[in-house]
Amino acid sequence: MKKLFFGILLITAAFTNGCRQDSQNPEALADLIANSRQKTGILVDQLPVEVVSQIELNYAPFFIEDAWHAPGDGYEIWLSDGQELYFNERGVFLHRRHHDRSDRGYGPAEGRCMRGDTIDVDALPGPVSAYIAAHYPDATIDIVVDKRGRLYAVSLSNDVILLFNRNGSYIRECDGVDRFVRRCMFGREVRPAMLPAEARAYIADHYPDAYIHKVVLKLNGVLAVLLSDGSVLLFRPAGGFIGLCD
């Protein structure tokens, strides 16, 4: 009889909690999750199947960078492109926002990029130091963090933050650029030296006061160039100018 009583009690509690979540404003519940003092980091494997399925379906090719669980409220997911997603306990989508929403308690990109356990520089795989020496010869390593055993984040003296996998292979720069730049610059980063001469000449003629900050090869073969003034230029594989990315 006692088992039956406690079983009914648990079912009633679950039903009550479900009704509370259904009736609550989704954005308000997302705020509860974001600011919960009970929130703890979890592995991706611990997320409800419904959450993982929705992310794979709607947000590919971006991956889950970090996951958090606020018991009784739901889940907070950080994607690799700077989005925060919120789901209730049953895996129902609630709200989406970007990391730069500091007015609601979300830190700047630097805080997100450097979340993890600080480790010694000597603990980094050899390829990391080699990559930094080759691509950032004038910078030194300030801080290194181990991001939950999956990635390394390296903060350099020039305020650039780089992400590497466990083998030391470069992944990407972690920064606080907005959605416009993220969309325009989505692709595989390549060396500026790979830009055809025609593209370099165009930049020198039309943007004499700017320098090349980053170059990516997009999935369609187009080269996207981010300049120091914030402009994103698109070029054909042979170097012909296509236009500004807007």
**Tell me, what's the shape?**
globular
Rg from alpha-carbon coordinates: 22 Å
Major sheet characteristics: 5 strands, antiparallel
Integer tally of domains = 3
Overview of the structural elements:
- With 246 residues, this protein is an alpha+beta fold.
- It folds into 3 domains: 14-107, no CATH class; 111-173, Inhibitor of vertebrate lysozyme, Ivy; 186-244, Inhibitor of vertebrate lysozyme, Ivy (3-Layer(aba) Sandwich), CATH 3.40.1420.
- It is 29% helix and 30% strand.
- The chain contains 7 helices and 15 strands.
- The chain has helices spanning 2-23, 26-34, 49-58, 109-113, 126-135, 179-184, 197-206; strands spanning 40-42, 64-70, 74-79, 83-88, 93-98, 117-119, 141-147, 151-156, 161-165, 170-173, 188-190, 212-217, 223-227, 232-235, 241-244.
- The chain has a 5-stranded antiparallel β-sheet, sandwiched between helices.
- A hairpin with a 5-residue loop joins strand 12 and strand 13.
- The radius of gyration is 22 Å and the shape is globular.
- Mean pLDDT is 79; it is low at 9-16 and 100-110.
